[in-house]
Write a structure and sequence with these properties.
Length: 233
Amino acid sequence: MAHKKVYIYRLFERIWHWTQALLIFALIFTGFEIHSSYTAIGFENAVRYHNVAAISLIILIIFAIFWHFTTDEWKQYIPTTKNLKAQINYYITGIFKNAPHPTRKTLLSKLNPLQRLVYLALKLFMIPLMVITGLLYLFYRYPAKGRIESLEWVNLEVVALLHTLGAFMLVAFVIAHVYLITTGHTLSSNLKAMITGYEELEEDADGEDQHGTEPEQKRETTHIEQQINDTEK
């Protein structure tokens, strides 16, 4: 089946993705050293770099939230049950049988039904859990009127356990995400798409894109692509 290159991932989206990935890996690396899982850069350095990476990630999240709502990209995460079962079956067995992908990607629909659920859970549960528990742990003790006060209503042990639980869930997500990068039509196609912004999408025999997009939707997609090109020039 023929393929054509389509501009899927915008410049900020790619910068945000790779910066977030770098910060998450830094948080995982320093976080587990803080937990004494291993020794590499020393406890004090691990705490210092962990805090810097955490604050940097929070700032990035604020920019990402603004970008999502000003570009309507938040709509990409609206969950749907259409083709959800087929998508799960594809990842469980179909992918190993070279079965066709049950859902297809466009500029207006970048995520399959399972990805929508996972990324929505990441943004509404996992990331907020890590940010809130991390800030509570960081500012549990604070200076006030020449002495150190504590947030007495906070159970620090519970906060630490929840933060660690969130860290393990984040590690599981990263492992699954790295694996799924290799499930494109070539091993490196998904990776290249997030670097260049262009992804090779399948075309039907009549030259239509792989979604069989309706004329009105095609016009909207073309309009969005033109806006993106004008913005990034």
